[in-house]
């Protein structure tokens, strides 16, 4: 079966996805009987390419202006781009908007209306429009998947969707923000808060303005996404009780180490009598906790369900390449589900 793919957003994640698609091309064909062509790539400032016969991905990864690869006129906006592409699958990887999820929500809506599977690593649409996008996908006989929004490529949403049928999630607890965990690890090794932030920026895991991570917003969005999708409680990031790591001092860190504990930015949510308590905040964890040994950029989430004992997922050393795998897995799962239907 042949699939036409469109990529909206071609930054760190979009480019890693392109590399993964290239490296898996033969395997997809030989083992899964799947071929693909990328018929459109759109960015904000690096041009737009549309070619119904397929864009040369190797060249797209090398040139600064994608417009050179286009056989069509520059579309007016992302919506016209989607209409012109006539793709089967959209990968939406534009920057997150914590407040409204836009314009990604509208991009995904348009793709679903046009009958495309919609796949994203962007957390905004999940916390701001999950139910509406899921219902629209169902109505149009396609899928809306977003595995990479929490813990990059590690299976979290698909774990519950595919492997845990009938299980009810009662609570979860984990470390879901790599940047703050790296900062806390570096501070334990004697670096100042500022040095640790600078290091995280130098390796590309913290943005120029790192407040989204440091003040707990990224973690709060992930808590909201997990609660919304896995617990069925629609939750906005603003409804998560949130405190970041800004106020932790070198003394606090050293004191904890001295008493055999470690500070972690802990994400948690618990259902109690139909209501949810959702929280992000620094906590001291003891050696008995599964969170204790989670260092650097590694993340963890521990689930409590009504059917199993504690179930944990740990992802070591995530990055745009593991985020790309989450998108790739969503692609295969989305088309597999449709083929089986
Ligand atoms: N980086 C990670 O490891 C990671 C992990 C999990 C989730 N995510 C999520 O994945 C998404 C992409 O992250 P990233 O690191 O790839 O970001 P990025 O490097 O900043 O890339 C964003 C891309 O989107 C394009 N873009 C921005 N606004 C657009 C618009 N209105 N229409 C079309 N294209 C637009 C940009 O164009 P220009 O190139 O012209 O600027 C760029 O190509 C974000 O939502 C992020 O939160 C990332």
Order of helices and strands: EHHEEHHEHEHEHEHHHHEHEEEEH
Termini Cα gap: 15 Å
Q: Give the biggest beta sheet.
A: 6 strands, mixed
Please report the total strand number as a whole number. 12
Number of helices: 13
The fraction of residues assigned to DSSP E strands is: 15-25%
Uncertain runs are none
Shape: globular
Mean pLDDT score = 96
The proportion of residues forming helix, as a percent range, comes to 40-55%
Strands ordered across the widest β-sheet: 3-2-1-4-5-6
Structural class from helices and strands? alpha/beta
Ligand set: NADP nicotinamide-adenine-dinucleotide phosphate
Taking all Cα atoms into account, the compactness measure Rg is: 21 Å
Blueprint of the fold:
Layout: E1 2-8, H1 12-23, H2 25-32, E2 35-42, E3 48-50, H3 57-62, H4 78-85, E4 89-92, H5 104-113, E5 117-120, H6 123-139, E6 144-145, H7 157-163, E7 169-175, H8 178-188, H9 193-202, H10 211-214, H11 217-230, E8 241-242, H12 250-258, E9 262-272, E10 275-285, E11 299-305, E12 311-315, H13 320-340
Parallel strand pairs: 1-2, 1-4, 4-5, 5-6, 8-10
Antiparallel strand pairs: 2-3, 7-9, 7-11, 9-10, 11-12
Helix pairs in contact: 1-13, 4-5, 5-6, 6-11, 8-9
The structure holds NADP nicotinamide-adenine-dinucleotide phosphate.
Overall description:
This protein is α/β, with parallel strands linked by helices and 341 residues long. It is 40% helix and 21% strand. Strand 4 (89-92), helix 5 and strand 5 form a beta-alpha-beta unit. Helix 4 packs parallel to helix 5, helix 5 runs parallel beside helix 6 (123-139) and helix 8 (178-188) crosses helix 9. The chain is globular and about 65 Å long. Bound molecules: NADP nicotinamide-adenine-dinucleotide phosphate (NAP). NADP nicotinamide-adenine-dinucleotide phosphate binds at residues 8-14, 42-46, 78, 93-96, 103, 121-123, 148, 152, 319-320, 323.
């Amino acid at each position: 079966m042949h699939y036409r793919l469109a990529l909206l957003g071609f930054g760190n994640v979009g480019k890693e996805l392109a590399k993964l698609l290239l490296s898996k091309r033969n395997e997809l064909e030989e083992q899964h009987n799947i071929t693909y062509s990328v018929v459109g790539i759109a960015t904000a400032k690096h041009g737009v390419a549309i070619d119904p016969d397929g864009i040369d991905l190797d060249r797209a990864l090398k040139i600064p202006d994608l417009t050179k690869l286009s056989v069509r006129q520059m579309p007016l906006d992302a919506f016209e781009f989607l209409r012109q592409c006539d793709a089967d699958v959209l990968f939406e990887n534009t920057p997150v908007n914590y407040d409204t999820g836009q314009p990604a929500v509208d991009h995904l809506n348009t793709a679903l209306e046009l009958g495309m599977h919609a796949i994203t690593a962007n957390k905004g649409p999940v916390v701001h429009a999950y139910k509406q996008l899921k219902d629209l996908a169902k109505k149009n006989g396609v899928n809306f998947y977003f595995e990479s929004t929490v813990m990059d490529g590690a299976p979290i949403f698909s774990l519950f969707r595919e492997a845990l049928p009938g299980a009810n999630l009662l609570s979860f607890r984990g470390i879901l923000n790599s940047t703050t965990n790296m900062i806390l690890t570096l501070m334990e090794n004697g670096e100042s808060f500022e040095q640790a932030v600078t290091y995280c920026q130098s390796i590309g895991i913290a943005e120029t303005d790192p407040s989204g991570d440091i003040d707990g917003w990224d973690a709060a969005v992930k808590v909201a996404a997990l609660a919304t999708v896995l617990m069925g409680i629609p939750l906005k990031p603003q409804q998560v009780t949130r405190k970041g790591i800004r106020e932790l001092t070198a003394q606090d860190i050293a004191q904890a180490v001295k008493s055999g504990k470690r500070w972690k930015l802990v994400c948690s949510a618990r259902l109690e009598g139909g209501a949810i308590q959702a929280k992000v905040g620094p906590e001291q964890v003891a050696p008995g906790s599964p969170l204790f040994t989670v260092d650097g950029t590694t993340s963890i989430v521990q689930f409590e369900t009504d059917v199993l004992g504690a179930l944990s997922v740990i992802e070591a050393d995530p990055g745009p390449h593991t985020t790309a795998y989450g998108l790739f897995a969503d692609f295969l799962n989305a088309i597999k589900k449709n083929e089986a239907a």
